[in-house]
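Give me the fold.
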Amino acid sequence: MFFLAASLWFASPSPLDMPRAETYLVSGADGMSCLEDRYDETDLWTYRTVSGRWTDADGRLFVLARLAAKPPVFAGEAKTRAGYRALERPIDPGKDLAAVRAAVARLSPVEPAEKFTRPHIPVRGMKDVLFWEGTNTSAVVCTFIEEGSSVWRAAIWTLVEGDDREEARARMLDELLPNWGKTAEKELPGEARERIEDARRRTGKPPRAVSERELLRADAERGVANYPSWHVSSSGDLVVLDNLPRTSGFVAALTNDLPRMMGKYAAAVPAAVAASNALAVARIYSSRSEYLAAAGDDMRWSAAYWSPARRELVAYLPPGGEKELLKTMRHEAFHRYLSYAVAFIPVSPWFNEGYAQFFEDEDDLGWKTPPFAGGEPSPEEIDELAGILPALMFMDYDEFYAGSDVERRMKYRLAWSVAVFIELGAPHVKDRPWENLKQDYLKGIVQTRDMRKATAMVLGEEGKMDRFVEDWKNFWR
């Protein structure tokens, strides 16, 4: 683990988000179509380059990086991890300072100077040390290479108002670099193999073929490898990253529970197309403050979320404890499953949020709890909610999440009541008019790629919505 000798400039780890992904429909080896995740090439480079980030209580950010590969020439390219690895270009440590500067430019909060400067006095144990921040005083941007090493490192310290940059430079030279050999970060997952593969490339031999899942798993582990408070657990199609206390039994419960729940999701919502390289990555924070620092202020109302762009389930340990967190993860894991099941085409919140709640409780018994606040609803209350139901069925996410906490909770509960009705009430309605509603709605999603049009396909005919609402009312009465 990397620390600065004698003083912690950064108190809290700030792990990187997983790289951004897009989904492509491709033909598999068996000729069948399947989904394939491809990732932003710049994100892949950053994720594989940054060894760690830390922040202190005053907002200073420290970044440590290993500058082994050149950054992508063009931003925004989407590649599989294996495709990216095959095209990765190593930096020649003795000749290619232009590539070192290009790497620094991608990582630094300030534009690097065209000409670097060196310390006045050589640093013990270092082959070379370069400062790149020029006249900018808001950061210290240093690259260094050890004696006998073939890889440049970068140490970037973003300062706060009132800090003296020259003092910060001096501390980096006096504390970090002389102690680097004693306190350097540990080798990250896959680096030993990558050194071998880089050597194979230089001799003209192709790198060993590695599956996308293996590379994704290694990257997930790499993202927290240098933080002692963070842990990695893996089980089948799931990788859990967490900084929960080691006395917690939650991770073991999750790694046992989630594969079982995946089977339940698939039974209720069969996938329209298989995913070739999907691996569930769950990131669990021990506190709400850490969760919000990662999630952002626009998610302050949430307890967890599924990030389709980052392919991550993100949550924190709530005041209700591990049982409540397990329910939350079942909820978010359904969102993840549904994303892949319909090729990442947006699904209406009445379906997505309704079924996510349906699967929260052990053995699917949560439907027995009245889905409305205040106990069993009266017939008058059911009539009032029935008046809202048609609008809810055509809401997009901005409309569904809008309003006060009370209004939002009501919409969540109403969506849940629809899922419960479809699963447990609709099969018993006379003539069974809703027998295929769920399947037809999901077919409509794939056909139209529009959540409102899909709802209109199953409930838009004259009188159909009225009949649906009436049958829903009878069930809940």
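The longest helix spans residues 405-425.
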